[in-house]
Amino acid sequence: MRKLVYYIAVSLDGCIAGPDGADPTGGPDAFWPIGEDYVRHLAAEYPETLPGPARDAFGISGEGAHFDTVLEGRRTYQNGVDAGIDNAYPHLRHLVFSRALTEAPDPAIEIVSTDPVAKVRELKQEDGKGIWLCGGGELAGALYSEIDQLIVKLAPMTVGSGTPLFGQKTSFDPAFFTLTDSKILESGTIFLTYTKR
Fold first, then answer.
1. In DSSP terms, which residues pair with 71 in a beta bridge?
2. What are the backbone angles phi and psi of residue 112, rounded to the nearest 5°?
3. What's the pTM?
4. Do residues 60 and 23 touch, judged by C-beta distance below 8 A?
5. How far apart are alpha carbons 65 and 29 in whole angstroms?
6. What Pfam families does the record point to (predicted)?
7. How far apart are the C-alpha atoms of 127 and 162, rounded to whole Å?
């Protein structure tokens, strides 16, 4: 069975973006620390998680090592559209969860307006590699019970307030994970891989 992997950058105080939910790594208001070693590590270990333009710049092609499918919430997807990228991950099967969006600018993107949990359970039964939950926090909160693995890119920073890792999820539901891998970069970011027990 395929696994749903929440692969996400998070601050020390548990936020994945600022209060407005905009992409913290790009644009004029970018504040997320991205060192050269961070980019090199992504290109070497998680090349499929780089957006298409970055893959082109690095000369990366072919299948990814971990994922063949990416899931995004409407707001996360909109960050790419606002940056002029209608499909940031053309090399992956790309699903966007939205009740309001009926059509994407790129016809290769699948719009899902039904229950995210039911859709993910369906995806897990299909053949393929891992399913990358890219964000945002609201979608992660909705899929909380379905997450099999967390790959947290822990940034050496705090933001004070912003978009929490699981959005505004309010129900108390402890889930336990085992640390299965870790990598500390010189620039201070720590990649932590946790697998659900």
1. 95, 133
2. -115, 115
3. 0.95
4. no
5. 31
6. RibD_C (PF01872)
7. 36
Which residue in this structure is represented by tokens 């990814």? Answer: 64
Structure confidence by residue, pLDDT tens digits, 78-118 = 999 988 999 999 999 999 999 999 999 999 999 999 999 99
Q: Which of 178, 174, 134, 172 is nearest to 153 (CA)?
A: 134
Cα gap 181→87, rounded to integer Å: 30
- Asked whether the bond before 167 is cis by omega within 30 degrees of 0, the reply is no
Asked whether residue 169 carries a pLDDT value surpassing 90, the answer given is no
Q: What is the DSSP-derived secondary structure letter of residue 36?
A: H
Cα of 120 vs its chain's centroid, Å: 15
User: 195: which strand partners?
Assistant: 149, 178
Preceding amide of 35 cis, omega within 30: no
Q: For residue range 11-69, what is the model confidence (pLDDT) as tens digits?
A: 999 999 999 888 888 777 889 989 999 999 999 999 999 999 999 999 999 888 899 99
Annotate 70-126 with DSSP letters as a single string: EEEEHHHHHHHHHTT-S-S-TTSEEEEE-SS----SSTTSEEE-S-HHHHHHHHHHS
The letter for the amino acid at 55 is R
User: Residue 154: is it exposed, middle or buried by C-beta count within 10 angstroms (0-12/13-18/19+)?
Assistant: middle
| Nearest partner of 97 among 125, 71, 120, 69, judged by Cα | 71
Tokens 């891992």, residue located: 130
